[in-house]
Design brief:
Blueprint: H1 2-20, H2 26-42, E1 45-51, E2 54-59, E3 62-66, E4 69-70, E5 73-78, E6 84-89, H3 102-136, E7 139-140, E8 163-164, E9 174-175, E10 177-185, E11 196-201, E12 209-214, H4 220-229, E13 234-238, E14 243-248, E15 263-266, H5 270-274, E16 287-288, E17 305-307, H6 321-325, E18 333-336, E19 346-347, H7 354-364, H8 376-416, H9 420-454
Antiparallel strand pairs: 1-2, 2-3, 3-4, 5-6, 7-18, 8-9, 10-14, 10-17, 11-12, 11-15, 13-14, 15-16, 18-19
Helix pairs in contact: 1-2, 3-7
Length: 457
């Protein structure tokens, strides 16, 4: 951009000097027009003049070139959006606002199209790891080992409490939790028999409150559907043990806030005594990620809470080293709770593959909520279908735009270009005029010759 702008600025100086001497620098006009056209292909530009001698180029409403002066543009990374580069004006450090052009198209692809696809892959990865780990830990390997994650965990927080330092000042300022599961097994079709409301905060950068009411005539299934349909950044489902599970989704505003539960509050008893998620109800018992130490607001055991993964979890999916070194630790056998201690403490036996089947079923059919899709299969299928639709629409839009560009270019050339037919007609006209003039001069010569030489004067 700056190279093209500098070339236009230099031409402006030369053109002004030549015009001041009374000449028309047509070749320089053409060169400047070509440079402006090249600039217009990159960004949305418009042309103006403060007076007849000062040529100005605008990007949006901001002056880029004014006669012999140029406003520099520079690139800088945005720390709030993973260091993605943006364009800024050097004179005031404000962001360059683009509305069209090749650069704006690339920025939109980066910030919206590709970002959505990256979020989808990350969501698939984090839900895959969490689902498999939560089931695998309850099973037993052939060697008798249990409580082992199948996938390695790499979390934002470097502690078991989920406390995390977001701005790098050395002080933890949030609690980053991806999933929490209740202690109690529930029947999703049973009437609740209690009243209350759940308060959530959207992960949209504005902490928009979302209220989920429930009444004594509601079933748990109805409340879960209400939560999921609210698009509040939290999804609800029952796990393999019919325990209520709440998980975070991607952020609507900043990828650095992906997979962080923002706020959980219950005025009644659904998330407290009934499901065993929160310790107490009301504002005082609410979990809020904007404070540290909030993991203590949960009744759940540590193994029933998943801390938020490090940024872009799809980039660090890795099988646990303990399993790689000894495949006998793969927990294919299902455990059982002996003694009523709410823990799978005894294996079913070496020939039992129930845990492996349970993991397979969870990844294929179970309603575990991956983002706002019910199952992994639905999530994957909807993603592929949407990609196909977007590709088709993009091709159609390109074809339409190319047709319009061709039409506009033809109109442009008809106005500014040279018509061969018109030029040929003019050449014939000029030739006939020249021939007529030549005949006129020849006739005058003959008349003078007669008058002077033949009349004997």
């Amino acid at each position: 951009l700056n190279k093209l702008a500098e070339s236009i600025r230099v031409l402006n100086e030369k053109i002004t000097k030549i015009e001041a001497m009374g000449d028309n620098p047509n070749d320089l006009y053409d060169r400047r027009d070509k440079l402006v056209e090249d600039l217009g292909a990159l960004v949305d530009v418009s042309i103006g003049r403060s007076d007849k001698d000062e040529f100005m180029v605008f990007i949006g409403q901001q002056i880029y070139i004014q006669g012999s002066k140029k406003n520099e543009i520079y690139l800088a990374g945005n720390a709030n959006y993973e260091g993605k580069l943006d364009l800024y004006w050097k004179q005031n450090d404000e962001r360059v606002i683009l509305e069209s052009g090749r650069l704006q198209g690339l920025i939109e692809v980066r910030d919206f199209v590709l970002n959505e696809k990256i979020n989808n892959v990350d969501s698939f990865a984090v839900n895959l790891m969490d689902t498999v780990n939560s089931i695998h830990k309850d099973g037993f390997g052939i060697n008798g080992k249990t409580n082992i994650d199948f996938f390695e965990k790499r979390t934002l927080a470097n502690n078991t409490f989920g406390d995390y330092d977001t701005n790098g000042d050395g002080v933890n300022d949030i609690t980053a939790i991806f999933r929490v599961t209740g202690k109690t097994s529930l029947d999703k079709d049973k009437v609740l028999g209690i009243n209350g409301q759940i308060t959530l905060l959207k992960n949209d950068g504005k902490a928009t409150p979302v209220i989920i009411p429930y009444s004594q005539d509601d079933t748990l299934s109805a409340v879960m559907n209400r939560i999921n349909n609210s698009r509040a950044g939290v999804v609800a489902s029952l796990n393999q043990d019919n325990q209520l599970t709440l998980k975070a989704t991607v952020s609507e505003e900043n990828p650095k806030n992906n997979f962080i539960i923002q706020h959980l509050e219950d005025s009644g008893n659904l998330l407290v005594g009934m499901s065993g998620i929160l310790v107490s109800s009301g504002t005082s018992g609410a979990f809020d990620h904007r404070r540290v130490g909030e993991i203590n607001k949960f009744q759940a055991r540590a193994e029933d809470i998943t801390l938020t993964s490090h940024y872009h979890p799809a980039s660090h999916v890795k099988v646990n080293k303990e399993i790689i070194s000894n495949v006998m630790s793969i927990a294919a056998s299902r455990g059982k709770d002996v003694g009523g201690v709410q823990d799978y403490n005894t294996p079913h036996g070496h020939k039992d593959g129930a845990n492996a089947l349970l993991m397979a079923s969870a990844l294929r059919d179970n309603s575990i909520m991956v983002e706002y899709n019910t199952t992994f299969s639905e999530f994957y299928t909807s993603g592929i279908a949407k990609l196909g639709i977007e590709a088709r629409e993009a091709r159609q839009e390109v074809e339409t735009r190319n047709a319009l560009m061709t039409e506009y270019e033809n109109m442009r050339q008809s106005i500014m270009g040279v018509s061969l037919d018109e030029e040929m007609a003019q050449m014939v006209q000029f030739q006939q005029s020249y021939n007529a003039s030549a005949k006129m001069i020849n006739m005058q010569n003959e008349m003078l010759d007669v008058i002077i030489n033949r009349l004997g004067v």
